[in-house]
Amino acid sequence: MTSFRIAALFAATALLAACSKEATAPAPAAAAPATQSAAAAAAQPSQGVTIEEIQAQTQGFTAGQAMSARTVYVFFDAQCPHCGALWYAAKPLKSQAKFVWIPVRLLKDESETQGAAILASKDPATAMDDHEGSMQDRKGGIKPEGDVAAQRAAVKKNTELFNKYAFGAVPTLVTKNPKTGAVVTHEGALQTADLAAFLGVPAPAQ
Q1: Cα–Cα distance for residue pair 160/47, rounded to 1 Å
Q2: CA separation for the pair 127, 178 (Å, rounded)
């Protein structure tokens, strides 16, 4: 994606940082400013959320450094534009962290089928790139190829855990505080510098 398209993506989501689980129309509900500062993006202590349960109960795909000591789990909906914004914001940090993207179904029926199609791909990260590019071009996103029943079941299971944790919006990020080791969460998209602050890694040079 060109720098112009990335800038346009953030401009389009400047007033809205997340899609709420109650949203049923294409326009998502407001959750928080997308341009919030690193201080405003401070992680919230988790309420019963555990990394072990996420690892055991969800299916996602990895982007970034597979062996990185810094891992963040991202619950996302394939129809959520703010999830797409976060996908691109995370790209400059892939050398410093491992992102595990976990598709859920909150917004539309397509959320489940497209999340399943991404999981079923031989290269999910490339499929996600293709999907987000299609969404930005207003072409509707990735289309499933072949039987994705098993992956649809995985998306449903991912959504069950998302709801169990009572998360209110996507994207939702879960990681460990780099200083205390405590599990922390954040709901809503972040721009790259704020995402780096959330993860406790250096922000890339401008």
Answers
A1: 16
A2: 30
Give tens-digit pLDDT for 132-180: 999 999 999 999 888 999 999 999 999 999 999 999 999 999 999 988 9
CA angle 101, 196, 19 (to 5 degrees): 50
What mean pLDDT is predicted for residues 186-205? 93
Q: What is the pTM of this model?
A: 0.83
Taking residue 193's Cβ as centre, other Cβ atoms within 10 Å add up to 17
Peptide bond into 28 cis (omega under 30): no
- DSSP-based three-state secondary structure for 4: helix
- Name residue, tokens 């619950």: 75
Tokens of 136: 């930005």
**Yes or no: domain 3-21+30-199 corresponds to CATH 1.10.1040.10:** no
Please say whether the beta carbons of 190 and 38 come within 8 A.
no
Q: Which pLDDT does position 205 carry in this prediction?
A: 80
